[in-house]
Amino acid sequence: MAEDRRSLIRWLLGGGFTASVISFLYPAIRFMNPPRIPEAAVNEVSAGRADQLKPNSSTIVRFGNRPVLLIRVAEDEWKAFGAVCTHLNCTVQYRPDGHDIWCACHNGIYDLNGRVVAGPPPRPLEEYAVRIRDGEVVIARRV
Amino acid sequence: MLSAATRRRAANWLDERLGVSAVREFLRHKTVPLHSATIWYYFGGITLFLFVIQVLTGILLLLYYRPTPAEAFESVQFIMTRVEFGWLVRSIHSWAANLMILTAFIHMFSVVFLHAYRRPRELTWLSGIVLLALALAFGFSGYLLPWNEVAYFATKVGADMVASLPGIGPPLARFLRGGEEVGGATLTRFFGFHVAVLPAITTLVLLFHLALVQKHGISVPPKLEAESRRRGLPIPQMPFFPNFFLRELMAWYAALGVLGSLAAIFPWELGVKADPFAPAPAGIRPEWYFLALFYTLKLLPSHVWIIEGELLGLIGFALLAVFWALLPFWATNRQGEIRTRLVTGAGVALLAYLSTFSALGYWR
């Protein structure tokens, strides 16, 4: 009888202690999990005047929260790609000498269609559409 | 001047309340084995000393540092250019961090080559591995705090490596970054980890590690133990206090000299402020202790069969880390004998891999 009572008390104390630890930990763990902040959907951005970018040069444009690499390949040829390397998330850059897109972090190289040419990137870059509207460069998501 | 009788009375008063004589008695009996490899015993203490330097200089830096993307870089710049000796304090903090990881690695490899991980010191080894992982976490979190270009991309790469792990990766990366991308939330988080979470965990694990070192005493290499048994002569010992303690103190002074010289002659640079909308600069690379991993990931092709090269590399590293952490358990055969050749071979191979790939990662 005394044994039963003791084991019941032990069970109650142990269970109560475990439950209280869980009740402390659960809100702390939930607190550490960052809330999801909805991102305003951006489908199109203006990248400034077309005459500001010379042929065979590039710039990085803010597309919502993401960087986009805008390249003026030739006088009338424009390209835009998501500037985030598909390997480990570094920001890529255009190399005018090699006419390619290069990631300095792990030496990944893409061609001007966004395809992987060399190095470790596993996937091509995301391509964006570029239009010139009244002398202004407009970058849009491809549908 | 206090008389001898007064001093004795004061000592007795303190002893009654603090039990100083028990500590004195304990220290009188504590010894350290004296042999040709005794020098390697000092590196654990030097690592501890550098950790203390980190804590002290870190507290000083906290007086001026501001953990927001708008102010972090400028506050470190302010420390280095306007605060008296600010450049020195920051330089010592950065150099001591690197030296601490170096001495921790030396300590770990000395434990391997002297076979000090063997029974009953398995938990001492495991707690040491946890401490090394914590030191690397300190390095990774602290690297971002100046909010410069190199640190920003290093953190992006590090967080993306975590994200690429199957299953647990994406939520863990969100937790680390404080969101989907490296930004202000990441900086605040890393600051919190660096100055509160990691020091608290490290202190607890460190106390556990030191308590185990205390409990089991200092290990003697099995070769010397066997030789002493064969000859029937005990291994020479030196008293811990004051002999070993004073030698350790001299080692700390030497470490302080090296640290002070490096910090003064090669002040730690701040670099360029991070810009999330700028490309990663040419020649970017992580801190030296992540170079082997960095270079391995650089060498791996995009796909190996159907697995992405990056994932394969990470799985390989994770398996290697687990295999290494479990060293005391595979180092002993069923008869309880140490496979000294296997362990020494594995140690040499790991050391060769880490040093070669780190050098290649630095120069290529």
The major β-sheet of chain A equals: 6 strands, antiparallel
Number of helices of chain A: 1
Instruction: List segments of chain B where confidence is low: pLDDT < 50 over at least 5 consecutive residues.
Output: none
Strand order of the largest sheet of chain B: 1-2
Radius of gyration of chain A: 27 Å
Describe the structure using short key phrases.
heterodimer, A: 143 residues, alpha+beta, Rieske Iron-sulfur Protein, 6-stranded antiparallel β-sheet, 1 helix, 22% helix, B: 364 residues, mainly alpha, Cytochrome Bc1 Complex, Chain C, 2 domains, two-stranded antiparallel ribbon, two-stranded antiparallel sheet, 15 helices, 4 strands
Description:
The complex is a heterodimer of chains A (143) and B (364). Chain A has one helix spanning 2-32, and strands spanning 44-49, 57-63, 66-74, 77-82, 93-95, 100-103, 108-110, 116-118, 127-133, 136-141. With 143 residues, chain A is α+β, with helices and mostly antiparallel strands. In chain A, the strands form two sheets. A six-stranded antiparallel sheet of chain A has the order 1-10-9-4-3-2, with no helix packed on it. In chain A, strands 5-6-7-8 form a four-stranded antiparallel sheet, with no helix packed on it. Chain B folds into two domains: 36-217 and 238-278, Cytochrome Bc1 Complex, Chain C, CATH 1.20.810.10; 285-364, no CATH class. Chain B has a two-stranded antiparallel ribbon. In chain B, strands 3-4 form a two-stranded antiparallel sheet. In chain B, strand 3 (303-304) and strand 4 (307-308) form a beta hairpin. The termini of chain B are far apart. Chain A binds chain B through residues 32-34, 37, 60, 62, 65, 67, 69, 83, 87-93, 103-107, 116, 119-122, and chain B through 153, 156-157, 159-161, 163-164, 171, 174-175, 177-181, 185, 276-284, 294, 297-298, 300-303, 308-310.
